[in-house]
């Protein structure tokens, strides 16, 4: 899975939990600015990403990433 695939996985997980279309999420928009984004939602997103990528994401990684693109980049590095 390449970086673009990981980013798409992140966007799809966000879209699922925020009831949005993944294509409408700007990967460079701060995650905290997404509609209805709360810490509990982010936890659900992380679980969805972990399941999709078959990996464990450290808590600090998930909550320190500012954008979907940044989170995807960190996940690629962790793989």
Brief digest:
With 79 residues, the protein is mainly alpha-helical.
**CATH fold label:** Non-ribosomal Peptide Synthetase Peptidyl Carrier Protein, Chain A
Secondary-structure element string:
HHHH
Q: Please tell me the CATH architecture by its name.
A: Orthogonal Bundle
CATH class reads Mainly Alpha
Largest sheet composition = none
Description:
It is a single chain. The protein has helices at residues 3-18, 39-53, 59-64, 68-78. It is mainly α and 79 residues long. Helix 1 crosses helix 2 (39-53) and helix 1 crosses helix 4. The mean pLDDT is 94.
Strands, helices and their partners?
Elements: H1 3-18, H2 39-53, H3 59-64, H4 68-78
Could you name the key traits of this structure?
79 residues, mainly alpha, Non-ribosomal Peptide Synthetase Peptidyl Carrier Protein, Chain A, globular
